[in-house]
Amino acid sequence: MSQELTPEKLEELKHSHIRSFSTRKGRISHAQERALSELFPKYELTYDKENKVNAKEIFGNDNPVVLEIGCGMGETTAAIAEAHPEINFIGCEIFPSGVGALSLLLEEKQLKNVRIFKHDAVEVVRDMVADGSLDGVHIYFPDPWRKARHHKRRLISPFFVDLLSPKLKTGAYLHCATDWENYAEQMMEVLSAAPLLKNKYEGFSLVAENPITKRPVTKFNERGNRLGHGCWDLVFLKK
């Protein structure tokens, strides 16, 4: 017998989503673990679905705000933030090792313009980011979920793009990058179909032409280049 679809259940389904990350426990070094407990509290933003992010209150200024989804080990986040002290960066990273590594980099470089959510980015965007509040969004090398049966778990989907687009200011940018061609094609299809977005270019973009910040070439990129992997960047603007 099927379960009755009550109004409460409908509301729950409306706010649920397929997670784009695996909850498997990754490795974490002693240095990252220590940074997580000792340094991360200085940069931490706490998920609270009842309150929106107030960037002026957090950073103490009215500088542009860029959201980075999936900071990884923090190399790119720290490099861009160091190059652009005039921009405030809010990162979302779910894995403790990445949060610890990024916290270490922020401390080493004494960066004041980065804060971090250790939480699912979809929930942060859905519940805590106000419409028209972001000047840019970076989504660099999200998990490609290579197997066809796992494609439904990819972050760049119509559901998420429809959720994210209203959070951008008019003219703000969304910059995505992937080294998986099939995912790049899907990104282009999804973003091109988004009613609130327009491609800044006729197709894929050049990294150097990012409208606000350049995406640095990381060790991850360099390794991919040596192995002959491609890399695709997409820059879309909010209409």
UniProtKB/TrEMBL annotation:
<keyword id="KW-0489">Methyltransferase</keyword>
<keyword id="KW-0808">Transferase</keyword>
<dbReference type="InterPro" id="IPR055361">
    <property type="entry name" value="tRNA_methyltr_TrmB_bact"/>
</dbReference>
<comment type="similarity">
    <text>Belongs to the class I-like SAM-binding methyltransferase superfamily. TrmB family.</text>
</comment>
<feature type="binding site">
    <location>
        <position position="93"/>
    </location>
    <ligand>
        <name>S-adenosyl-L-methionine</name>
    </ligand>
</feature>
<protein>
    <recommendedName>
        <fullName>tRNA (guanine-N(7)-)-methyltransferase</fullName>
        <ecNumber>2.1.1.33</ecNumber>
    </recommendedName>
</protein>
<feature type="binding site">
    <location>
        <position position="179"/>
    </location>
    <ligand>
        <name>substrate</name>
    </ligand>
</feature>
<dbReference type="GO" id="GO:0008176">
    <property type="term" value="F:tRNA (guanine(46)-N7)-methyltransferase activity"/>
</dbReference>
<keyword id="KW-0819">tRNA processing</keyword>
<dbReference type="GO" id="GO:0043527">
    <property type="term" value="C:tRNA methyltransferase complex"/>
</dbReference>
<feature type="binding site">
    <location>
        <position position="147"/>
    </location>
    <ligand>
        <name>substrate</name>
    </ligand>
</feature>
<keyword id="KW-0949">S-adenosyl-L-methionine</keyword>
<feature type="binding site">
    <location>
        <position position="143"/>
    </location>
    <ligand>
        <name>S-adenosyl-L-methionine</name>
    </ligand>
</feature>
<comment type="function">
    <text>Catalyzes the formation of N(7)-methylguanine at position 46 (m7G46) in tRNA.</text>
</comment>
<dbReference type="InterPro" id="IPR029063">
    <property type="entry name" value="SAM-dependent_MTases_sf"/>
</dbReference>
<comment type="pathway">
    <text>tRNA modification; N(7)-methylguanine-tRNA biosynthesis.</text>
</comment>
<dbReference type="InterPro" id="IPR003358">
    <property type="entry name" value="tRNA_(Gua-N-7)_MeTrfase_Trmb"/>
</dbReference>
<feature type="binding site">
    <location>
        <position position="68"/>
    </location>
    <ligand>
        <name>S-adenosyl-L-methionine</name>
    </ligand>
</feature>
<dbReference type="Pfam" id="PF02390">
    <property type="entry name" value="Methyltransf_4"/>
</dbReference>
<feature type="binding site">
    <location>
        <position position="120"/>
    </location>
    <ligand>
        <name>S-adenosyl-L-methionine</name>
    </ligand>
</feature>
